[in-house]
Amino acid sequence: MKFTRINVKTSIALTLLAVLTLAGCKAPPPPVTDDTVVTSEVDGVTLTHRHAVQAPQTFSPVNETYRALYNASVMTRPDFSGNVVRYLENGKPFTVLGEVENHWLAVAETDQQELIGYVPFKAGVKEDLYDATVRNDRPRPRKSVKKVCVDVGDKSKACRNSDTATWILE
After folding, report:
1. Most buried pick, 73, 85, 100, 142, via CB within 10 A?
2. What is the rounded CA–CA span in Å between residue 77 and residue 82?
3. Based on the number of CB atoms within 10 Å of its own CB, is 12 exposed (0-12), middle (13-18) or buried (19 or more)?
4. Count of structural domains within the chain
5. How far apart, in whole angstroms, are the C-alpha atoms of residue 49 and residue 4?
6. pTM of the model
7. What is the C-alpha separation between 48 and 98, in angstroms, rounded?
8. Whole-angstrom Cα distance, residue 37 to residue 49?
9. N- to C-terminal Cα distance for the chain?
């Protein structure tokens, strides 16, 4: 009977040892996808972004609301070699987190802090300057040009039509 008791005790001890060993194991982390949210520290600033969006090499904080001057492509890296993530909508506000290399802007959704991508510097303007920028960008009417005529012989002359730049014999 002692032999059986020793076997039972050994069996229980090995089972407890196996349970304790496995209890310390953690499940493997989920696989990293393009949509996995990661953090990066650049120039002392911590940025939160999707894995698909490349962290910038340099970062100068701006943290201001801008408005889009056109339907700009939001890229995964601060140049045109990246992939398009989405588009800014003309005239709509967005948050500029900072300026990065190549004079691009690191952008986020309005009033958010998660980096969604990068747009060229000229894609937007500070919100308080938007109306004046759009007003100054409108085409201005041409000044009327006086009629230009030249003599072509015998009482005839050719005059240039200022609207179409064609010459008409008169």
Report:
1. 100
2. 5
3. exposed
4. 2
5. 61
6. 0.67
7. 13
8. 6
9. 133
Do 126 and 165 lie in one domain? The reply is no
Question: How far apart are the C-alpha atoms of 76 and 81, rounded to whole Å?
Answer: 9
d(CA 29, CA 13) in angstroms, rounded, equals 31
* Half-sphere exposure of residue 111: CA atoms within 13 angstroms, side-chain side: 0
- Cα–Cα dist 96/87, whole Å: 14
Residue 138, pLDDT score: 72
pLDDT, block means (10 residues), the chain with 170 residues: 67 77 72 89 94 95 96 96 95 96 95 95 94 81 73 83 77
CATH label of the domain that carries residue 103: 2.30.30.170
- Asked whether the beta carbons of 101 and 133 are under 8 A apart, the reply is no
pLDDT (0 to 100) of residue 70:
94
146 DSSP 8-state letter? P
